[in-house]
Specification:
This protein has about 140 residues and is of the alpha/beta class. The protein has one domain: 3-Layer(aba) Sandwich (Rossmann fold). It has five helices and five strands, in the order βαβααβαβαβ. The protein has a five-stranded parallel beta sheet with strand order 3-2-1-4-5, sandwiched between helices. β1, α1 and β2 form a beta-alpha-beta unit. The longest helix is centred in the middle third of the chain and has 23 residues. About 5% of the residues have low confidence.
Length: about 140
């Protein structure tokens, strides 16, 4: 059975760096990557819907996640790495932990900071929550220039 890796992506530059590292690790371990994009349940989509015509924002966020995962999929195919993509919705760190419990990965791989503004100086809040509550090894990848 192939080792499993859980890669969390959000479109940030650090997430892109995490993707490239995950692909190198997967090649070395002959592992399968489960790439996860979580549509954050922040209420923003509902407010955007309300301001327009009441439809569409959630769908656009899901489509953006699917497009991002398609790019990750293309990179994985070029690298010869087996990849499953997952789009989920909810509180990101909770969904990440739930998928980790289901998959039992060798590693969870995340970018150090996400898209939620300046955030924390050293790690993003989602990374901090996952680090605090996971029972699986977590690789936190900084933005690499």
């Amino acid at each position: 059975m192939k080792p499993e890796l859980l890669l969390c992506v959000d479109g940030s530059p650090a997430s892109t760096a995490a993707t490239h590292l995950a692909l190198r690790i997967a090649q070395a371990l002959q592992a399968r990557i489960h790439a996860l994009f979580v549509v954050a349940d922040s209420g923003l989509a509902a407010r955007v819907d309300e301001a327009h015509d009441g439809t569409g924002a959630d769908k656009r966020l899901i489509e953006a996640g699917e497009a991002l995962l398609a790019r990750v999929g293309a990179l994985a195919a070029d690298a010869g790495v087996d990849l499953e993509t997952i789009v989920d919705a909810g509180e990101p760190f909770e969904r990440i932990l739930e998928h980790a419990r289901r998959l039992e990965p060798e590693f969870i791989i995340m970018g150090r900071t996400g898209r939620r503004g300046p955030g924390r100086a050293l790690v993003g809040s989602e990374v901090e929550h996952v680090l605090e509550f996971t029972e699986y090894p977590l690789i936190v990848v900084p933005l690499i220039d």
